[in-house]
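Problem 12. The chain below contains 312 residues. Write out its predicted structure in token notation.
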Amino acid sequence: MQRSLEPANLTSVQQFVLLGLSTRLSGRDALFAIFLALYLLTLLENTLIVYLICTHGELRKPMYFFLGNLSGLEMCYVSVTMPTLLAGLWTGPYHISFMACMTQLFFFINLVGTECILLASMAYDRYVAICCPLHYPLLMRPQVCLGLAASSWLGGLVVSVAKTTCIASLTYCGPNVLNHFFCDVSPLLNLSCTHVALTELVDFISAIVILCGCFLMTMASYVAITMAVLRMPSAAARHKAFSTCASHLVVVGIFYSVTIFIYARPSRIEAMDLNKVLSVVYTVVTPMCNPVIYCLRNREVQAAFRRTLQWS
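Solution.
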């Protein structure tokens, strides 16, 4: 194993070694069991949400349409990063080919960008529902919802193609050890032996446009929602609206604060242990919590779930 971790100084790197989440043998088994359970729970929760939205007519509304897209995205999200995390905990440092590493990076960036735009679309949907209720059926008609969802997936794809192409075109001549549990942008930039200024610029600009742009749009929507809620005459209506917005803002705040800290920076990140811990938050914790916060606490979703249990 020691030989496989030695730098490959003479030739271009053909594979990378992912050190994983933990290098201590004593805690790997427990961590493997914990993260495997979280992975299966996340898949179960999000599969349930997609099933309920697809099979119950009362959930075929714009809000649940976006939540269904988010659940599908979360299943893809954890399925991109979790396999290498679990493999590293099970076997130790995990060897991944250059092509497989770039493929994982491509899908990961794609899904991060898609989620940013999708969260902004969901915030806009709530803004229209609360601030423009009379125009909601027109402004959020099925064609608009499909367009917003398609734009989310397409936007993530465009950003991913640009960033992955730049990173894959760099030269990696050694060492080949990534102090991470999946192929991420910053660890790869730290291993490149060529000039990375252009790649860092593309990474920084795309992070600013997607992450910060979508974050500002989301916050603007919630500020308008808050102002509209404060003008509501009914205390019960204000409490209901604020409780819903607070739950959404918790998830949005965690996701954006971590991702902006990691990616919206013009230089390489050296604190890789901190990077790994923060990555666990938005690649494991957030996808697991989103279904509970967004859907499973919702009365309509709970009623649909109870009817499903009665039918079975």
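Discussion. The mean pLDDT is 83. Students who got a different answer should revisit the alignment rule from Section 12.3.
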